[in-house]
Amino acid sequence: MLDIQTIIYALIGGVIPAFIWLAFWLYEDYKNPEPRGLILKSFLMGMIAVVLVIPLQKIVDGVFPNMAIIAIILWVILEEVFKLGAGYLGGIKSREDNEPLDPLIYMITAALGFVALENTLFVLGSIVNNNILEGVLTGNLRFIGASLLHVVSSGIIGTALSFTFYQTKSIKRIVLVLAIILATIFHTIFNILIIYKGSTGGILAFGMSWIGVILLLVAFEKIKTIAPERY
Question: b/e map of 92-122 (b: 16 or more CB within 10 Å)?
Fold first, then answer.
């Protein structure tokens, strides 16, 4: 039975780590921070995306019960598209999205909101089954992998939006589609490694994700130097 204590444990394992991660990424934009209201909105939109995606993923499982790879790919596409929608509705469509780094910030924020609720539900399930300590500890370990995955995959899309910030709409659309495809490939490979390749796959997936984070940090610094006159 759910009570306040159960919810608190779930939040400890899900939302609080996401806020810590979010603080790290927001620090990268400390010179020109985004409005806290839009950051919160993007985070909440990311959480709402989970609620919308889960029923669709169940439909996918029902349609492709014996086609695991196809199901995984469709799961990934749903998650990436809905996270993009969360970032767009959360802040990218606003007037405050007025410099190249902004789309990347909003996409990462939405991704962390997505991870926060996803992980909270995981921890909540463990606690309901009377595995409180295991749920919190496993949930936090799971959070590391999930947050790296979603931050990098959404970061790929956000980076594309940032680098084409001053480009024409046609170029933006083409690059965005390519970024979604790349994010989908990255996300799919991660899932396949985790699901089918055991501990070795897990190590490879985490290694791949950390490399992605490093490249994302490099992109952050590069995006900060983009100016309108270059275009």
Answer: bebeebebbbbbbbbbbbbbbbbbbbbbbeb
